[in-house]
Design brief:
The complex is a heterodimer of chains A (476) and B (463).
Chain A: E1 4-7, E2 16-19, H1 21-33, H2 37-64, H3 73-98, H4 107-112, H5 114-131, H6 162-192, H7 197-206, H8 214-245, H9 259-285, H10 294-325, H11 328-339, H12 343-361, H13 364-367, H14 371-396, H15 420-443, H16 449-458, E3 459-464, E4 467-473
Antiparallel strand pairs in A: 1-2, 3-4
Helix pairs in contact in A: 1-16, 2-15, 3-5, 3-6, 3-8, 3-9, 3-14, 3-15, 5-6, 5-15, 6-7, 6-8, 8-9, 9-10, 9-14, 10-11, 10-12, 10-14, 11-12, 12-14
Chain B: H1 9-16, H2 18-21, H3 26-51, H4 66-77, H5 79-90, H6 100-122, H7 129-132, H8 153-184, H9 189-199, H10 206-239, H11 252-279, H12 287-317, H13 321-332, H14 336-355, H15 358-361, H16 364-391, H17 407-430, H18 436-445, E1 446-451, E2 454-461
Antiparallel strand pairs in B: 1-2
Helix pairs in contact in B: 3-17, 4-6, 4-11, 4-16, 5-6, 5-10, 5-11, 6-8, 6-17, 8-9, 8-10, 10-11, 11-12, 11-16, 12-14, 13-14, 13-16, 14-16
Classes of the chains: A mainly alpha (476), B mainly alpha (463).
C-alpha cells in the first residue's frame, strides 16, 4: 500500500493528496489487476444491458426497417449521448493538461479512457447512415417545397453528408485513441516489465520502445499538444456537422446558428459530469482515495459550474431571439422543442442541466466535498440524455416523407413516446458504453502514473509566516 | 528560475507611486494635446446638433453608421476589465496582478465613452430623457398615451450599461482602498485629506483585509452576470430586429461577448505595454505577463473565429433571398469584400499567427502590432455587421443604398479615442495603475522549489 498523506487546514482540510512516488506504480498496478466482486457485478449487469441494446436494435430493424428515420429517433438520441461523452472527455484531459492545471493529474486517464468507448459510436453510426433522408427532394421540383433541403452542405458536394460524417466520426475516434496511446505509453513501458501473458505482449507492442529519455518525453509532450489542438478542432467541427445533419436539417425552417454551440457546450458539460461520476466511484469504492484528492473535485466543479452557466446562457440566447422575433416559422420551432410538444422533456432537461446542478454547485462547502461535484455530474449526465431525447427524437419525427423538403413546419407535430425497443436501445446503449469503459480499465491503469508522479515532484508543503500551505511548482 | 527580481515593499511603493507624486515632463503637454482633440470632437458634435443629421453620411436606409459602430466597439473594450480582473481573480491566475487595475479603469472610461455615442447619434441628446424617465417634472406626453416602451433595446441598453458602469466603479474603488491609504500616508494638505476620505479609515488590520478580500471575491462573482448581459443586450439591439435579415441571428449574444473579450484583452495588453514603456515599469509588467495574455488571447480569438464562421455559415444556410443579398454585398461587392478580408485577416489570422510563436509573444513591438491589429479588426467587424445589413435591408433593389462617413463622424470617433487616452492618463496621475497591494501579495507568495538539478518557480496556495 502506498503511503499517502492528505493535507490542508480549515475549510480545505484533506484537500490535497501527497502520494509516495516510490510505491505508487506498484500499488496502482496491483489495484488494476485486482477484480472485486462489485466490479464483476457491474460488468455482468452492463453486459446484460449491452445484449438488450442489441435485441432492441434488431427488433426495431425488423419492425420498421431502415427506410424512415422517424422510428430511429431514440437510437439517434442514445448515439448522440454517447458521442457527447466520448468526444468531450478526451478533450477535458487535453485542455487541463494544456492549461497546466495541477489538479487534473488524477483526472487525465479517467477522461482519456472514454476514447475507447468511441469505437461503439463508430459502429452505431453505420445504420444511421442508411436511414438519414436524402438531401435531394425525391419528388424533384414541387411547388411549396425545396428541391434540396436546408443543409450545411448547401449544394451537396461529393459524398455529402454521409461519407464526410462517417469520416469525421472515424477520424475523431482514431485521434482520441492516439491521444490515449501517446499519454499511456510511459505507463505501459513501466508495466511491460512486470506484466505477463496477453497484457505483457500488448504493453511490449504498444509502449513503442519507450525508455523515458529526454527526447522521448519532449516528443510525447509535443505530440500530446499537437494531437490535443487537432482533436479540439475536429470535435468542434464534428459537433457542428452532426448536430446540423441529424437535428437542425431535419426540422423544416429551423435556422439556428447557436445550436451547434449549444450542442458543444452540452457535450463538454456531460463529459465533465461523467468524468466526475467516474472519479467519485473510483475514489469511494475503487480504492483510489489515496490518489484522487478532493482538490480535483473542487477545481473541476468550478469548471462544471461555469459550463452549466454557459449552457443556460446559450439556451436563453436561442430562446429570446426566436421568441422576440414573433415570426411564425420560429414560433413553431419554439412550440415544438420547448413550450408545447416536448415541453415536459424540456422542463426536465432544464431542471437537470441547469437548475439542480447550479443549486448544488453554487455552495462552496458542497463543492469542497467529493460527493457534491459528483452529484452535479450525475445530474448533468441525466440532463444531457434528456436534451438528446428532446432534440433528436423531435428532429427525426418533425417532417415525415416529403414534408421534410417544405420551407417550414406548417403544423407542430405530436410527441413520439418510446416503445419497449426504444427503451432497450437507450438503456442498453448506455449500459454498453459503461461495459466497454469497464473493460478498458482492465487494460490500462485508470490513473496516469507519470502525471501523478510528476505532480508529486511539483508540490510541497511549506511554512509561510504562521501557517502551512501548499507550494506549487509552476514550470514555464 | 523566476522571471524578474524580487521586489521589496518599499521599492514597490516608490516605483509605482512615482507617477502620482511626481508628474513627468510630457504629462501636461500630452494632456493638453488630447484635450484639444476632445474639444475639437465636441465642436464637431455641436455642429451636427446645430445643423442636423445632414452633415453626417447617414441616410435612408443606413441610419446607423460610425456612431453605433463606435458605441459597440467601446462597449467591447470595456469587457477587458471584468474578464481580466474578476475571472482571473476567481481562477487565481498569478499573472493577473499587474493587469487588473489598468483593465478595470479602462472598463470604466470605455463605458463612459460608449454611452456618449448613442446620445450623439440621436441628434437631439436632450430628448433621450424620454427613453427612461416618466417622472412628473419631465414633459412626457401622458395625455396621448405615450409611454416609454420597455420592450425596446433603447431601454435595455442604458439599464445594462449603467448597471455595469456602477458596478465597475464600485469594483475599482473597493480594490483601490488599500492603495489610497498608502497615498494618504505619503501626501500632505488637500491631497492628504482627499486620499484620507477615499481610504475610508483603512489601517490594514486583519479584519479590514478579510473584508476587502471577501468584497473583491463577491464583487467579482456578482459582476460576471452583468458583464455577460451588457454585450448580450447590445447584440440584441441587432438580433431582435427581424427586418434586417443578417442581424436576426441566435448566435449574436455569445458572438458579441467573445468578440468583446477579444478586443478588450488585446487593448489591455497594448495599454500594459505602453505603461511599461512610458513609466519604466519593467519590474512589474514583465514579458511573462504579456506572454500569458497572448496565450489567453489565442483561445479567445479561436473561440471568436468559431462564432464568426457559424454566423456566416448559417447566414447562407437559410438560402433566403433577402439574406443572400446582404451576404452578396459583404462578400462580393467591392470595397466591402476587401474590408471583409482585411477584417478577418487582422482580427484572427495575423494576431493568432503572431501569438503562436513564443519569441513573438515576448517581443513587445510585435505584440503591440498584434493588439492594435485586433482592435482595428474588431472595429471593422461591427461596421461590417451594421452597414451592409442596413444597406440591403429592403427587398426591393431601388431602396438599396450604401454609406460613406462624413468628416464630422470621423472627427467625433477620433475624439473618443483621445478622450479615453486622456482620462486614463489623468487617472494615472491620481491613482496607481498597478495595484500596490496585489503586487506585494504576489511577491510574498512567490517562491521556488528545486526538482533534481532544476529550480522551478512556485507559489504558495491556500486552495
Amino acid at each position: 500500500m502506498a503511503a499517502t498523506e492528505a493535507k490542508g487546514h480549515g475549510q480545505h482540510a484533506g484537500m490535497w493528496i501527497y502520494p509516495d512516488a516510490a510505491t505508487l506504480s506498484q500499488d496502482i498496478s496491483e489495484k488494476s489487476k485486482a477484480t472485486s466482486s462489485a466490479f464483476k457485478t457491474a460488468l455482468v449487469v452492463t453486459g446484460i444491458l449491452f445484449v438488450l441494446a442489441v435485441i432492441g436494435f434488431i427488433a426495431r430493424a425488423a419492425d420498421d426497417g431502415f427506410d424512415e428515420i422517424g422510428p430511429w429517433g431514440y437510437y439517434n438520441a442514445v448515439f448522440s449521448m454517447i458521442f457527447m461523452v466520448t468526444s468531450g472527455a478526451p478533450l477535458a484531459a487535453c485542455a487541463f493538461r494544456f492549461t497546466k492545471s495541477h489538479w487534473r493529474r488524477p483526472l487525465s486517464r479517467v477522461a482519456e479512457l472514454f476514447s475507447i468507448v468511441g469505437i461503439l459510436n463508430l459502429i452505431m453510426f453505420i445504420p444511421m447512415m442508411i436511414f438519414l433522408p436524402s438531401l435531394d427532394n425525391p419528388a424533384g421540383v414541387v411547388e411549396g417545397q425545396m428541391e434540396l433541403r436546408r443543409t450545411i452542405w448547401f449544394e451537396g458536394p461529393i459524398g455529402a453528408p454521409l461519407a464526410w460524417d462517417l469520416l469525421g466520426v472515424a477520424f475523431l475516434v482514431i485521434t482520441a485513441i492516439a491521444i490515449l496511446w501517446t499519454s499511456a505509453m510511459a505507463d505501459m513501458a513501466e508495466a511491460r516489465n512486470t506484466a505477463t501473458g496477453f497484457k505483457g505482449w500488448l504493453y511490449r507492442r504498444l509502449s513503442g520502445g519507450w525508455y523515458g529519455t529526454k527526447r522521448q518525453w519532449n516528443v510525447q509532450k509535443a505530440g500530446l499538444a499537437l494531437l490535443g489542438a487537432f482533436y479540439f478542432m475536429t470535435v468542434v467541427f464534428m459537433h457542428f456537422v452532426f448536430s446540423s445533419d441529424y437535428a437542425q436539417s431535419l426540422i423544416p425552417g429551423w435556422k439556428d446558428s447557436i445550436f451547434p454551440v449549444i450542442y458543444t457546450v452540452t457535450s463538454f458539460q456531460v463529459s465533465l459530469g461523467a468524468i466526475l461520476v467516474a472519479l467519485f466511484i473510483l475514489r469511494r469504492w475503487g480504492g483510489y482515495e489515496g490518489y484522487i484528492g478532493k482538490s480535483t473535485f473542487w477545481s473541476a466543479s468550478k469548471v462544471l459550474l461555469g459550463i452549466t452557466l454557459l449552457w443556460i446562457y446559450h439556451m436563453f440566447a436561442f430562446f429570446i431571439t426566436f421568441w422576440y422575433g414573433r415570426l411564425e416559422i420560429e414560433q413553431n420551432i419554439i412550440q415544438y422543442l420547448i413550450s408545447d410538444t416536448y415541453s415536459i422533456v424540456f422542463i426536465l432537461n432544464a431542471l437537470f442541466s441547469f437548475v439542480l446542478p447550479f443549486a448544488v454547485l453554487v455552495w462552496n462547502p458542497v463543492r469542497r466535498t467529493d460527493w457534491g461535484p459528483a452529484l452535479a455530474g450525475l445530474l448533468v449526465v441525466i440532463g444531457g440524455l434528456l436534451f438528446n431525447i428532446r432534440i433528436f427524437v423531435a428532429s427525426a419525427n418533425a417532417a415525415p416523407g416529403e414534408k421534410l423538403y417544405a420551407f417550414f413546419m406548417e403544423h407542430v407535430p405530436a410527441p413520439v413516446y418510446p416503445d419497449i425497443w426504444d427503451v432497450f436501445m437507450v438503456v442498453g446503449g448506455l449500459g454498453a458504453a459503461v461495459f466497454i469503459y469497464l473493460l478498458s480499465t482492465r487494460i490500462l491503469p485508470v490513473l496516469s502514473l507519470w502525471e501523478v508522479k510528476e505532480g508529486t515532484l511539483y508540490q510541497k508543503w511549506g511554512k509561510l509566516f504562521r501557517g502551512e500551505y501548499q507550494i506549487l511548482g509552476k514550470p514555464e | 528560475m523566476q522571471e524578474g527580481k524580487p521586489l521589496s515593499s518599499k521599492q514597490i511603493n516608490r516605483e509605482l507611486l512615482l507617477t502620482i507624486l511626481n508628474s513627468p515632463k510630457w504629462f501636461f503637454t500630452t494632456i493638453s494635446l488630447l484635450g484639444m482633440i476632445v474639444l475639437f470632437a465636441m465642436g464637431a458634435a455641436g455642429i451636427m446638433i446645430n445643423q442636423g443629421f445632414g452633415v453626417t453620411g447617414l441616410n435612408r436606409p443606413v441610419m446607423w453608421g460610425f456612431f453605433i459602430t463606435n458605441f459597440v466597439f467601446w462597449i467591447g473594450i470595456s469587457h477587458a476589465g471584468v474578464m481580466l480582473s474578476a475571472i482571473l481573480r476567481l481562477s487565481k491566475a498569478e499573472w493577473r496582478r499587474p493587469a487588473t487595475r489598468a483593465a478595470e479603469i479602462l472598463t470604466v472610461f470605455s463605458l463612459m465613452t460608449a454611452m456618449t455615442m448613442p446620445l450623439i447619434h440621436t441628434g437631439r441628446p436632450w430628448r433621450t430623457v424620454y427613453w427612461i424617465y416618466t417622472l412628473p417634472f419631465v414633459p412626457y406626453d401622458y395625455a396621448r398615451g405615450i409611454w416609454p416602451n420597455i420592450r425596446t433595446p433603447l431601454v435595455w441598453d442604458p439599464s445594462a450599461v449603467y448597471t455595469y458602469l456602477t458596478s465597475s466603479i464600485l469594483f475599482v474603488l473597493v480594490a483601490l482602498i488599500p492603495d489610497f491609504a498608502v497615498l494618504r500616508d505619503r501626501t500632505t494638505g488637500i491631497s492628504h485629506r482627499i486620499y484620507g476620505m477615499l481610504a475610508m479609515g483603512w489601517q490594514g488590520n486583519p479584519r479590514q483585509w478579510k473584508l476587502q478580500v471577501i468584497a473583491g471575491v463577491l464583487l467579482s462573482a456578482l459582476i460576471l452576470p452583468v458583464f455577460v448581459s451588457v454585450h448580450s443586450i447590445v447584440s440584441w439591439d441587432f438580433g431582435m430586429a427581424v427586418s434586417v435579415k443578417s442581424w436576426h441571428s441566435t448566435i449574436f449574444a455569445p458572438y458579441f461577448v467573445v468578440g468583446a473579450v477579444h478586443s478588450g484583452v488585446s487593448a489591455v495588453a497594448f495599454v500594459l505595454i505602453l505603461l511599461r514603456y512610458v513609466y519604466g515599469w519593467q519590474n512589474y509588467i514583465r514579458h511573462e505577463h504579456i506572454d500569458a495574455l497572448a496565450r489567453l488571447l489565442v483561445v479567445v480569438a479561436t473561440g471568436w473565429f468559431y462564432f464568426l464562421v457559424m454566423e456566416i455559415v448559417f447566414g447562407f444556410y437559410g438560402r433566403e433571398a433577402d439574406e443572400i443579398a446582404v451576404r452578396n454585398f459583404q462578400f462580393m461587392v467591392t470595397p466591402w469584400n476587401i474590408w471583409m478580408m482585411i477584417f478577418v485577416g487582422v482580427t484572427y489570422f495575423l494576431p493568432v499567427g503572431i501569438w503562436l510563436s513564443r519569441s513573438a509573444r515576448r517581443n513587445l513591438w510585435i505584440m503591440s502590432l498584434a493588439c492594435i491589429s485586433v482592435n482595428i479588426g474588431m472595429w471593422l467587424e461591427r461596421f461590417l455587421i451594421i452597414v451592409p445589413g442596413l444597406a440591403r435591408k429592403q427587398l426591393l433593389t431601388f431602396d438599396w443604398y450604401t454609406y460613406r462617413p462624413s468628416p464630422i463622424e470621423w472627427i467625433i470617433v477620433g475624439g473618443t479615442f483621445a478622450m479615453v487616452t486622456m482620462l486614463m492618463l489623468i487617472v494615472a496621475r491620481v491613482a496607481p495603475l498597478i495595484p500596490l497591494y496585489d503586487i506585494k501579495e504576489g511577491e510574498i507568495l512567490r517562491t521556488e522549489i528545486k526538482i533534481g538539478r532544476v529550480t522551478v518557480p512556485a507559489v504558495y496556495r491556500e486552495d
